């Protein structure tokens, strides 16, 4: 057996950009986390008679999509669940509340058509007319009758290009958005009454956007005006931003998906160098559950000290743990090895570390977070960005990671993969004796 054929199955198991989405993957590879908000969300939804709006915050790659897929599967028999993936449906740089509102309207319209809910035609026709208005305001669209498939296809193109950029500049989109919401709400009310099931919309992918875009999007009241339960995934930097305190009050709850900690904090919520065994056991299970699916030949593929380093340097971020494991497989293949030892793990860590780009103004804040376990509100200004809170950027880029202690109190620390960089800065900037 060639080295490539040996390493390929393990390599294929570790795909950092692919969350667990299917029932089979969740059954085979999911590892329960003590801080998962899924059970709390189920309870909150059961308690709510009126439409509730929730936010789910966490780091990019922290496992929000996997947890929301678990929620979807747990509630499929109890609710009519509509999953919306904004990453595939919308363009990252042309997105705002307008695109999100129109997309939700489209997905609800499609769900009605696909499942033949038996609603009155005028409800669907009214919504379709509102959606058509967006299409016909597109400067490239011909004002001719379009059939439903063409309308949906055209809307998809406009959403990708950005509603507020693509439609005629003289057209005020907001009144039409309000009309779309009004007509979607009429469909929701009729559907829930007829099907005797509440509607739950899960909007995934909005956590991938920058701070300014996310703040503008979620500050809009339109995202809370739909008459159904909705869960939005948001960036962790938005959740802790001082600018978001007031807009966040429009939502029933903001739940946190924090990372399994790889180090302990002390009684004052300050980081320590003491390994957190509970958190590391979860990460260990994530790796070994996947390897177990390959059989006994792959048992012990990672030496214990190599696995310990990979777990530590992941900071508890699931995507980064998987990326480190995948990179270690690449290095081992390159070195013609049949296992991952500590030297391989160190090389994998260095390769992944190169993906992080620190600037001089980051280090004083990293130092403060590492000493205190708290975020700061200090700001910095850049020509192309203006003034911003430095810790918002540190969270967004995973330079700083968030955790809970045993009492579910939040604390923060520098991403362990950057600790050596911080230590070098501290040594260079320590007072000279």
From TrEMBL:
**Protein name, per record:** KAP NTPase domain-containing protein
The KAP NTPase domain is annotated at 39-218
Q: Which InterPro entries would you find in this protein's record? A: KAP_P-loop, P-loop_NTPase
Q: Name one Pfam family in it.
A: KAP_NTPase
